[in-house]
C-alpha cells in the first residue's frame, strides 16, 4: 500500500521521537537535541508533557502501539517521577537520573503537562493520569493567580514564592498564558468543577485585555519572532470560545497580525513552530486564507531534516543546530491537518491540539 504524504511525514518524525534518544530511558523527554554537539539538553517536564500529546496524536493517526507505549512512559515519568507530591507541583527540569534539578515551577509548563496527561487519560482511562491532572490543575489555581487577574509565570521552590516579573515575555504575565489555561477548561469538561471553569474565564478576560499590548512588544525583529510564537499560544487558547463575538474578532485579527509580522521578519530570523502554529490556528479556527495556508505549509516542511525531526529555526537563511521536539510536533500536526483539509477529512477537536 502506498503511503500518503502525511503518513510518510508522521512515520519519519515518529521514528525520530522513538529512536533518536530524545525520549530517555526514564520516559522523560529532553528540551532539544544539539545536532552540532550531538547531545541532548536536560529533560524538561514541559517538553515531556508536549511529547505525551504528540505520541497520542501519532498513535491515533497510525494505530502503531509503539507510540502509545512511548506516551505511557512519558506520562508515567510525569506522574511518578516529575510530580513533587510534597510541594504539589511539577518542577521545571530534571537531571539525568530523574531527580529534580530545578528550583522553579512555571505556570505555562504545568498547563501543558496537565493537557498531556488528559490526552493519555482519554485514550487509556487510567485513573493515575486523571488524578494527577486534577491535582496539578488545582495546584495551579491555588499557587499562580496574582492580583488584578494576572497570573504569576514563575514560582521559586520550595516556598512557591512568585518571582519578580521581568521584561522578557516568558517571565511576565501575558496573553500567551491562555494556552496553559486551556488545562482548566479541559479539566472542567472532565470534572464539572466550577473552579476550573472560573479559572479559564478569568484568564480569558485578562488575555483579551493584554492582546494589543503583547504584540509586537519589542523593536528587535528576532525578539518579535519569539513573541509571535508566544502570541500564537493566545490564539490557540481562544479556540474553545470562538462562538463569542469578541473572541472571534480577536482571533481573526491576531491571525492576520501574526501572518504579517512573520513574512516581514522571516528573512532575518524565523522559527519553524511559528509557521506551524499559524497554520494550525487557521485550520482549527476556520479563518482560512488558502494561499497563505499553502505558503505556511510549504515553509514548515522545509525544516524537516533527514533524521525526521524538525529544526527550530533559521537566522539569515542559515539553519540553527537545534532539533526540537516541540517544533517537530507542531510542524507534523500542522502539515497533517493541512492534508486533512485538502482531502476533506474532519477537523480534530481543540483538545487534540498539541
Structure report:
The protein has 354 residues and is mainly α. The protein has one domain: Alpha/alpha barrel (Glycosyltransferase). It is built from twelve helices and twelve strands. It has helices spanning 5-19, 45-62, 65-82, 107-124, 127-143, 178-191, 194-214, 221-237, 245-265, 272-285, 290-301, 325-343, and strands spanning 29-30, 33-34, 39-40, 43-44, 93-94, 104-106, 154-156, 161-162, 269-271, 313-315, 318-319, 322-323. The protein has a three-stranded antiparallel beta sheet with strand order 1-4-5. It is globular.
SSE order and pairing:
Blueprint: H1 5-19, E1 29-30, E2 33-34, E3 39-40, E4 43-44, H2 45-62, H3 65-82, E5 93-94, E6 104-106, H4 107-124, H5 127-143, E7 154-156, E8 161-162, H6 178-191, H7 194-214, H8 221-237, H9 245-265, E9 269-271, H10 272-285, H11 290-301, E10 313-315, E11 318-319, E12 322-323, H12 325-343
Antiparallel strand pairs: 1-4, 2-3, 2-12, 4-5, 6-7, 7-8, 9-10, 10-11
Helix pairs in contact: 1-2, 1-12, 2-3, 2-4, 2-12, 3-4, 4-5, 4-6, 6-7, 6-8, 7-8, 8-9, 8-10, 9-10, 10-11, 10-12, 11-12
Amino acid at each position: 500500500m502506498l503511503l500518503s504524504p502525511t503518513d510518510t511525514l508522521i512515520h519519519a518524525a515518529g521514528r525520530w521521537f522513538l529512536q533518536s534518544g530524545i525520549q530517555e530511558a526514564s520516559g522523560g523527554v529532553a528540551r532539544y537535541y544539539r545536532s552540532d554537539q550531538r547531545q541532548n539538553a536536560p529533560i524538561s517536564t514541559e517538553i515531556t508533557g508536549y511529547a505525551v500529546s504528540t505520541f497520542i496524536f501519532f498513535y491515533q493517526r497510525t494505530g502503531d502501539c509503539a507510540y502509545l507505549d512511548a506516551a505511557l512512559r512519558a506520562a508515567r515519568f510525569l506522574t511518578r517521577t516529575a510530580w513533587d507530591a510534597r510541594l504539589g507541583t511539577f518542577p521545571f527540569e530534571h537531571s539525568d537520573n530523574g531527580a529534580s534539578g530545578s528550583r522553579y515551577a512555571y505556570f505555562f509548563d504545568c498547563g501543558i503537562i496537565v493537557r498531556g496527561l488528559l490526552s493519555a487519560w482519554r485514550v487509556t482511562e487510567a485513573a493515575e493520569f486523571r488524578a494527577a491532572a486534577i491535582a496539578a490543575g488545582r495546584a495551579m489555581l491555588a499557587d499562580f493567580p496574582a492580583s488584578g487577574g494576572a497570573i504569576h509565570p514563575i514560582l521559586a521552590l520550595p516556598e512557591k514564592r512568585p518571582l519578580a516579573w521581568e521584561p522578557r515575555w516568558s517571565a511576565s504575565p501575558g496573553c500567551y498564558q491562555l494556552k496553559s489555561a486551556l488545562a482548566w477548561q479541559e479539566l472542567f469538561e472532565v470534572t464539572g468543577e466550577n473552579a476550573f471553569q472560573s479559572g479559564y474565564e478569568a484568564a480569558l478576560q485578562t488575555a483579551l485585555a493584554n492582546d494589543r499590548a503583547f504584540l509586537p512588544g519589542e523593536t528587535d525583529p528576532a525578539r518579535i519572532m519569539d513573541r509571535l510564537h508566544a502570541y500564537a499560544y493566545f490564539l490557540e487558547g481562544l479556540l474553545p470560545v470562538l462562538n463569542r463575538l469578541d473572541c472571534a474578532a480577536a482571533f481573526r485579527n491576531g491571525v492576520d497580525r501574526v501572518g504579517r509580522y512573520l513574512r516581514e521578519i522571516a528573512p532575518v530570523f524565523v522559527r519553524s513552530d511559528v509557521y506551524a502554529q499559524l497554520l494550525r490556528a487557521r485550520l482549527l479556527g476556520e479563518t482560512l486564507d488558502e494561499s497563505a495556508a499553502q505558503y505556511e505549509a510549504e515553509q514548515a516542511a522545509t525544516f524537516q531534516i533527514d533524521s525526521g525531526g524538525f529544526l527550530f529555526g533559521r537566522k539569515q537563511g542559515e539553519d540553527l543546530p537545534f532539533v526540537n521536539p516541540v517544533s517537530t510536533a507542531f510542524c507534523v500536526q500542522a502539515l497533517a491537518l493541512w492534508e486533512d483539509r485538502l482531502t476533506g477529512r474532519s477537523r480534530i477537536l481543540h483538545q487534540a491540539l498539541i
